[in-house]
UniProtKB/TrEMBL annotation:
Protein family per UniProt: Belongs to the major facilitator superfamily. Metabolite:H+ Symporter (MHS) family (TC 2.A.1.6) family.
Record GO cellular component, one term: plasma membrane
Name of the protein described by the UniProt record: Putative proline/betaine transporter
Function comment: May be a proton symporter involved in the uptake of osmolytes such as proline and glycine betaine.
Residue ranges annotated for the Major facilitator superfamily (MFS) profile domain, each copy included: 4-415
UniProt KW Transmembrane helix keyword: yes
Membrane spanning residue stretches: 40-64, 76-94, 146-164, 176-195, 229-251, 263-283, 295-314, 320-345, 357-377, 389-408
Location in or out of the cell: Cell membrane
Keywords assigned: Cell membrane, Membrane, Symport, Transmembrane, Transmembrane helix, Transport
InterPro entries in alphabetical order: H+-coupled_symporters, MFS, MFS_dom, MFS_sugar_transport-like, MFS_trans_sf, Sugar_transporter_CS
Length: 436
């Protein structure tokens, strides 16, 4: 179980690291790849390129989700990791607009598209793989440990950017220092590929293969028979996508716009992410005890109520300690929510098309909500002139997920092979009174 969890989390860490690095370096990239635009327009352009990777994630989900259901979870995991690590490394080697003009942003967009294709299947397949080894009474804990990979990657990316900002001059950081975090994707990717080549296939997939029940056309079956489940996954993922990217990626650029230095903004973000790691570690096991839907519902309500006051406090912060405190507070609910959601996806989906339905629903949420999160948040600030405006977007996501949590409550959990094995071994997983 430790090997399975580590392998799933390692790839998830690398994939999210690659995304996070771009988010933390957006201010610099906007000057290098969109130098002729006004500062606000250049920043919006850079945020738009960040969102481009999310546009193609549904396509990646169809490809890699179908691979996971037809040819195995392990095969899909290897493919996504090779693609995302390669594309990120190339970003670190790209010439800027000063060297090749319009081709610089075009190549940047192309690499982001490749990252998006890989990400369309990475997160969902990693979660499915780990969950299919785990009985229900430990599934929240196990998937939250895989989720830790995503949060740890944010800390890793933010820490590297913070270190570079502290050791390099602003001129050096703009000239060549920004490339270092992207180039680190190569050794990280090679390490992840090595780990994943040593994996065995999940017991759930092996059982389907031995019984001759693998779907011949997973995508067709997912949309024809399980489209409602795709919508349900989208709803649960709504706040996870918006909250995660606003609280842990957009916050860094947002803080700089409030008048703080890049180093102070990164420091506040690093502390927030460090606290989030603890909360993710705690949230998963807690959902094993009190139930998934209860936590999803409660956290959505809390975010609806507190989003605006949190942004009001953050936008009015004038000292570094208060800035750090409010940044941490903004990330508490998104961190807890993202620790509970993964096990929920697994338990409401049938094994035959679990990879495809999970990947598609989650990728569509990423494309429509997660990818545009940075752009929409900045757009709301630009249009309204109100630094508290991003709160409305977070509240919107929380409302969608609130209704999804109510729908989860009405569904019975899909039993996994690991649950039946646990009962046969005398472990007697605790029954959930609310079905999940």
């Amino acid at each position: 179980m430790r090997r399975v969890t580590f392998a799933a989390a390692a790839g998830n860490t690398i994939e999210t690291y690659d995304y996070a690095v771009y988010g933390f370096l957006t201010v610099i990239l906007s000057k290098l790849f969109f130098p002729g635009a006004q500062p606000g327009v250049a920043l919006l352009s850079a945020f738009a390129v960040f969102g481009v990777a999310f546009v193609v994630r549904p396509l990646g989900s169809l490809v890699f989700g179908a691979i996971a259901d037809r040819f195995g979870r392990r095969t899909s995991l290897l493919g996504t990791l090779v693609l995302v690590a390669g594309a990120t490394t190339v970003i670190g080697l790209l010439p800027t607009a000063a060297s090749i003009g319009i081709w610089a942003p075009i190549l940047l967009v192309l690499m982001r598209l490749l990252q998006g294709l890989a990400a369309g299947g990475e997160y969902s397949t990693a979660m499915v793989y780990a969950a299919e080894f785990t009985p229900q009474n430990r599934r929240g804990a196990m998937t939250s440990r895989v989720q830790l990979g995503s949060v740890v990657s944010l800390l890793l990316a933010a820490g590297i950017v913070l270190l570079l900002n502290a050791t390099l001059t602003r001129e050096a950081m703009t000239a060549w220092g920004w490339r270092i975090p992207f180039l680190l994707a190569l050794p990280l990717g090679l390490f992840g590929i090595y780990i994943r080549t040593r994996l065995e296939e999940s017991p759930e997939f092996r059982a389907l293969a031995q019984a001759g029940e693998l779907p011949a056309a997973p995508v067709k079956e997912a949309f024809a028979r399980h489209w409602r489940l795709i919508v349900l996954v989208f709803g649960v993922a709504a706040f996870q996508q918006i909250g995660y990217y606003v609280a842990f990626t957009y916050a860094q650029s947002y803080i700089i716009q409030l008048g703080f230095t890049p180093g102070q903004a990164t420091l506040a973000t690093v502390v927030s992410i460090a606290v989030a790691i603890v909360l993710v570690f705690v949230g998963g096991p807690l959902s094993d005890r009190i139930g998934r839907w209860r936590m999803l519902l409660g956290l959505s309500v809390v975010m609806i109520v507190t989003a605006y006051p949190l942004f009001a406090g953050l936008s009015s912060a004038r000292s570094l300690p208060l800035l750090v405190l409010m940044t941490v507070a903004l990330g508490v609910v998104p961190a807890l929510y993202t620790s509970v959601a993964p096990a929920t996806y697994i338990e409401v989906l049938p094994a035959k098309v679990r990879g495809t339905v999970f990947a598609v629903g989650f990728a569509v949420a990423a494309a429509l909500l997660g990818g545009p999160a940075l752009y929409v948040s900045q757009f709301l600030v630009e249009v309204t002139g109100d630094h508290r405006a991003p709160a409305y977007f977070m509240m919107f996501g929380a409302v969608l997920s609130l209704f999804a949590a109510l729908a989860v409550r009405r569904r019975r959990a899909t039993p996994l092979l690991a649950d039946r094995v646990a009962v046969a071994d005398g472990q007697s997983p605790r029954r959930e009174a609310e079905q999940v």
